[in-house]
Amino acid sequence: MSSTGTTHTDIKPPFGRLITAMITPFNKSGEIDWDGVAKIAQHLADSGHDAIAVNGTTGEAPTTKTSEKLEIIKVVKSTVGSKVKVLSGAGDNETAYTVEQAKRCAEVGADGLLIVTPYYNKPPQAGIEAHFRATAAATDLPIMMYDIPGRTGAEIETDTICRLAEVKNIVALKDAKGNPGATSWVIKRTGLPVYSGDDILNLPLLSVGAVGFVSVCGHVVGKQLREMIDAWFAGNTKRALEIHQELLPVFTGTFRTQGAILTKAALNMLGLPGGFTRLPLVDATEAQIAQLREDLRQGGVKLN
């Protein structure tokens, strides 16, 4: 820390550095493929992940039942053991549900919570702050806030983040705001561990002080992301940039439509149980799969 006390250069990552927001594989009839859940979790553990985030947007949490969410936590925990932390999304646009779901996630063994900004109802900053404070007060689990205004319709403003960073068990921020300037101010003012929530901005956010990633592309290029983040923190910024540029086609290709759709398609190409989606998501078309195959090929991914 500098003599001014405002430069945070060695922020510790509370959940490790590499996290992927895991898909939930469904079979064709829409039921969860539980063997597939375990296989994807093991695949992520084997590709260098420190933690796995389940029951998020990529996990199609808006369409899974509470009971399914809790079982997902248990299956992933039993698969990866204690070496890989398991975070669970518990956020909802109703604070009361979020509070109760946070408690339930703790009861079934989650190591931490990923709490998204309340969505659709667009609360003011006072409501957003109260939502996070109420959730944090209901559990001893460490909480990662999730700021993604493009999905929720409401950002967590910098001043609000700074106040919430003082809450004991709010220990990190997943930043998918797409505004590195705002992120820079949050890190400077708070020292709060920030994780990139947008794969194409992983390296740029490291450069302003982020501690790691909550990735989607980690399903397919987890080993490369592990190498990139290790290179960065070892001071080999040249290698980190090389990997970032090599993976640009993967980052772009995965999000040509909704990320879970194409991630599942990519996993299926790799011989892993990506499975099917649940409505209102729809499975990738043949044309989308052909484009994704080319994107992955250009990004150096070896496909079956």
Task: Characterize the structure shown.
By secondary structure, this protein is of the alpha/beta class. 46% of the residues lie in helices and 12% in strands. The protein has an 8-stranded parallel beta barrel, surrounded by 4 helices. α4 packs parallel to α6 and α6 runs parallel beside α7. The protein is globular. The N terminus is likely disordered.
- Sheet of most strands: 8 strands, parallel, barrel
Number of strands: 8
The number of helical runs is 13
Tell me the span between the first and last alpha carbons: 48 Å
Order of helices and strands: EHEHEHEHEHHEHEHEHHHHH
What is the strand arrangement across the widest sheet? 1-2-3-4-5-6-7-8
Model regions low in confidence, pLDDT < 50 over at least 5 residues: 1-5
Shape, per Cα inertia axes: globular
Radius of gyration: 18 Å
Strand content: 5-15%
**Global mean pLDDT:** 96
- Give the quaternary arrangement of the chains: single chain
Helix coverage percent = 40-55%
* Structure classification: alpha/beta
Write the layout of secondary structure elements.
Elements: E1 18-21, H1 34-46, E2 51-54, H2 66-80, E3 85-89, H3 95-107, E4 112-116, H4 125-137, E5 143-147, H5 149-152, H6 158-164, E6 170-175, H7 180-190, E7 194-196, H8 202-207, E8 212-215, H9 218-233, H10 237-246, H11 248-254, H12 259-269, H13 286-298
